[in-house]
């Protein structure tokens, strides 16, 4: 008997967001508004917001699968966030994503 694993590697999404001059507080509030609700979405393993000394924000997310991330991205919460984001940002987000290759703790689900 042959078994096929359907286990997917967790997907991480991370990047830097630079506020427009005078918009740091508004961008911070907008980003902080995502943390709690995003952590409650199915498949969210990690969701963290950091503020750099240079004023940029660093967002780090880990999702159980690409499908979970896609569902999260399709929520009204994220659509509203993406519509508001350009008003408060200098340029485009510096964003990256990819499959996590280091082991993720099994009990993190």
TrEMBL record:
A Pfam cross-reference name: ABM
Molecular function terms, GO-annotated: monooxygenase activity
PROSITE patterns, per the entry: ABM
Source superkingdom: Bacteria
Keyword set, alphabetical order: Monooxygenase, Oxidoreductase
Keyword Oxidoreductase in record: yes
Limits of the ABM domain: 11-97
Keyword set includes Oxidoreductase: yes
InterPro entries found in the cross-reference section: ABM_dom, Dimeric_a/b-barrel
Annotated protein name in UniProt: Antibiotic biosynthesis monooxygenase
């Amino acid at each position: 008997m042959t078994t096929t694993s359907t286990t997917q590697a967790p997907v991480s999404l991370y990047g830097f967001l630079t506020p427009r001059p005078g918009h740091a507080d508004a961008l911070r509030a907008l980003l902080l508004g995502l943390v709690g609700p995003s952590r409650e979405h199915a498949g969210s393993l990690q969701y963290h917001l950091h503020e750099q000394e240079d004023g940029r924000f660093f967002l780090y997310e880990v999702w159980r699968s690409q499908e979970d991330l896609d569902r999260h991205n399709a929520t009204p919460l994220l659509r509203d966030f993406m519509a508001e984001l350009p008003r408060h940002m200098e340029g485009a987000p510096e964003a990256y994503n990819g499959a996590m290759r280091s082991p993720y703790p099994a009990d993190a689900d």
